[in-house]
Amino acid sequence: MDRERRLRGRCSRDHRFGTKLVEITIERIGGEIERDWRPEGLSVRISLPLKSMRS
Asked: Sign (positive/negative) of CA torsion 16, 9, 27, 25?
């Protein structure tokens, strides 16, 4: 499942607690997160295995 969301404004490249929590959670369920710091803002792609979306 791929979804794209665009956010505008200033972004911090700091890896704070919330960022680490998201990274760890995504990795534990077999997903991946990619960040692309563009001049117009941050682009984030999160890929999750379909099986993790099922209950």
From this structure: positive
Local structure of 47: helix, strand or coil: strand
CA–chain centroid gap for 53, Å, is 16
Euclidean distance between CA atoms 32 and 6, whole angstroms = 18
> CA-to-CA distance for 40 and 4, rounded, in angstroms?
15
Place of tokens 């984030």: 44
What is the tens place of the pLDDT at every residue in 33-46? 998 988 888 898 99
Read off the pTM.
0.58
Give the SS3 label for residue 51: helix
The secondary structure of residue 34, as a DSSP letter, is E
Q: Which residue has the tokens 């890896």?
A: 15
